[in-house]
Amino acid sequence: MRKIFSAVVVLAVMSLAYFYTFEYSALSVVELKKEVKSDSISKEVLQVAPTILYGIVVDSFQVEERSVQRNQSISDILLAYNVSHQTIYHLANVAKNVFDVRKIAPNKKYTVIYQDEDSLPSATALVYEPNPEEYVVFNLKDSINVYVEKRPVEIKEKAISGTIQSSLYEEILKNGGTPELVDLVADMYGWQIDFTKIYPGDQFKVLFTERTIEGKAVGVEEIIGAELIHYNNPFLSVAFDQGDGVDYFDEEGKSLRKAFLRYPVKFTRISSRYTAKRFHPVQKRYKAHLGTDYAAPTGTPIYAAGDGVITKAVYEKFNGRNVKIRHNSTYSTQYLHMNGIAKGIKPGMKVKQGQLIGYVGKTGLATGPHLCYRFWKNGRQVDAMKVDLPPSEPIKEDYLSNFNRYKSFVKEKLDKIAYPESDEEVLMAGMQ
Ligand SMILES: [Zn+2]
């Protein structure tokens, strides 16, 4: 019995010694000293520099970051942190002039700063971020108040260039651009090139300004200029404002845009084309269809195809709710079967190209939701898909010298942007 006991003691001592030497050798004295020192330093730093989040000292609080769930309201968020219904009601009232609490949207970030007393959380403040550029602070303790803070935004000039391999989208993203930039470039060149098709070997340069917050890009401010080499033909684009908003112009000062949108609606498919004769699905007889039908879900926005004056905004038995625009002495367009006409659209009102005029529906004689788009040229209905659309206004005489000077400045900048090393195979494919 005794022998066994002593053996256990010896083993225990041995393992202790082993453990001790191991521990000891793993940490040298120098390191040990360093650790003690840094520990005290970090404590000092903590004391002089409190942690500040959204302008609030949060050292003695718990901080929880989450994103708004579907159908979640400010009440749902705050009740979980033991804020009373009464306080929430009061808070919503106080917030009224600053931020409408009903506008809290899914997937947006929010932060709750709270105290954890006896494991019962009690919110001190809620911070909601509607976009990367600003945040709303709801102070819940002491005096209840709400304010919006804007983060400082820096505007930085940026350039992206690339050689298209599969799509403009992929190439711009690969070079550090965003989907927003892709949309802007595709819209800008939309009349020259159909970017839904692939043009391997095509090259582009885009010069633009970007909004950044704390060094992080949050959006495109504006495009300054661009160059596109499409099947070896260069397309220059210079952003210029000649008094009626920014437009894009080419080498000669001609607008890149046409006087009419290619499509006045984002459609899912063309359900019926312009034809002199077709079988009408509702009337069950052959009839001419003097418009183009764009199938799209009910409520899809419809835009004015060009600048003009509203001549009609009515409900009619067959055409349903419809709007007609006179663009000039030559052209008029009409939009049929609207679910609703946009607010304020009335005869006599001036509209700009791309302005919202109504929403897709199936009012009047229609089987499903679609836009029937009609196009008049010199008083006769023509096929909007085939008519040769006139270009938008070029640079006016008065602005020409200014434009030319600005154009040289933009071109000089564009010339300094290099195209990335091009892949020979891609170039070969592009020449085929
Ligand atoms: Zn139609």
TrEMBL record:
GO CC term (a single one): cell envelope
SUPFAM superfamilies listed in its UniProt record: Duplicated hybrid motif (SSF51261)
Coiled-coil segments: none
Domain (M23ase beta-sheet core) ranges: 288-383
CDD domains: M23_peptidase
Residues of the Csd3-like second N-terminal domain: 156-274
Primary location group: other
Pfam families cross-referenced by the UniProt entry: Csd3_N2 (PF19425), Peptidase_M23 (PF01551)
Disulfide bond as UniProt keyword: no
A GO molecular-function descriptor: metalloendopeptidase activity
Cofactors, names only: Zn(2+)
Keywords (A to Z) from UniProt: Hydrolase, Metal-binding, Metalloprotease, Protease, Zinc
UniProt-annotated location(s): Cell envelope
Single Gene Ontology BP annotation: proteolysis
PANTHER family for this protein: CELL DIVISION PROTEIN YTFB, PEPTIDASE-RELATED
This protein's name: Murein DD-endopeptidase MepM and murein hydrolase activator NlpD, contain LysM domain
